[in-house]
Amino acid sequence: SVREHVLNMISVLHEAETHGAVMDEKTQVSIILESLTPAFSTFTTNYVMNKLKFNITQLLNELQTFESLNKTISS
């Protein structure tokens, strides 16, 4: 699920920070977006084209909504 993936990515980003990496939240959101499967390309394109700005919590919520809607449409 996208929730598990994003939570895993947050953990990886946190670990990188504990080892000295410095990343602002915008960079973290970008890394998470880049790590998504092609199934989320529409979401990512919309995010970039509309110059959206989510924090990580908002991103997680929006991705879960997108995933849920796509599952509903596919069923």
Task: Write a brief caption for the model.
This protein is mainly α and 75 residues long. Helix content is 73%, strand content 0%.
Account of the 3D structure:
With 75 residues, the chain is mostly helical. 73% of the residues lie in helices and 0% in strands. The chain contains 4 helices and no strands. The longest helix is centred in the last third of the chain and has 19 residues. It is globular, with a radius of gyration of 13 Å.
Q: Please count the helical segments.
A: 4
Range of strand content: under 5%
Largest sheet: none
What is the average of the pLDDT values?
Answer: 95
- Using only C-alpha atoms, the radius of gyration works out to 13 Å
Number of strands: 0
List keywords for this structure.
single chain, 75 residues, mainly alpha, 4 helices
Secondary structure elements and their pairing?
Elements: H1 2-18, H2 25-34, H3 41-49, H4 56-74
